[in-house]
Design a protein that fits this description.
By secondary structure, the chain is α/β, with parallel strands linked by helices. Helices cover 32% and strands 20% of the residues.
Amino acid sequence: MTSTASPRRSLFVDVDGTILDHERGIAPSTVTALRAARARGIPVFLCTGRAAGDIPAAVRAIGVDGEITNGGAFAEDDGVLVLDKPMPRVDAERMLAFFVAEGLPHFVQTHDAVFASDDIRDLYQGFLARIREASRKDHETVGAPAVEETGPQRSFRPIEEVDLDHVAKGIFASDNPGTVDAVHAALGDRFLVIPGSMPMPTGSNGEVSLLGTDKGEGVRAILAHRGLDAADAIGIGDSWNDREMFDVVGTSVVMGQADPELQRHADLLTASVGEDGVATALAHLGLIGPA
């Protein structure tokens, strides 16, 4: 008589637009669902484009087993750094020089911090004000789900302080909807250029990372360190920097508010971030009890 071992499931979860409703907060159902999955022995890993030093305390307080940050440049498993891949200095210099030459407001990320040009600070403040106002109106007019506060406002350091030997990723904003394509045309020989995951109040924003540095690589690093099979892994996300994660995991889940084109690359469509999307997906997949 033979028996089939139960799969050793693992869960990789994006932050912005998946756990965190951008700067609004976290649905309580998401916290409960992720903790319930871990209680069942399923390791849970953050898989985010954010720098490790830029992950909100409220997200960390959920409790996870590790994290992939900077879109796959770094990965930690239970405190052990299993992937450490900042871009070479020459590439960081080229990317930053391009942003400056083109007049593109920008962020540059290292493992620990986010560095901001003066002009993008202003754009971000406008974005934050609009997000908070929209959240207030949602609660007053349509009874939007309650959210938990995510703590202090994000902290950005001056761009002049960045150490170019430790840059992992760049983010740019523009009022020209064609800017992502233009940046890809200029830098695509060495860099992955994709639409940004943060809905900035401009016509176009994007992310720039070294080719071959993506969330999929981070997922593979953690699976290898744990001795887990990719076929048993589940990934949940909402933006284009989750595409490579979707390609690696056995089951990919996309949030309901995601770009319809991205939705076609996932195995399962769940509800939006503000409508209990994570909890709904985990219940559907049998990782937790019914939502």
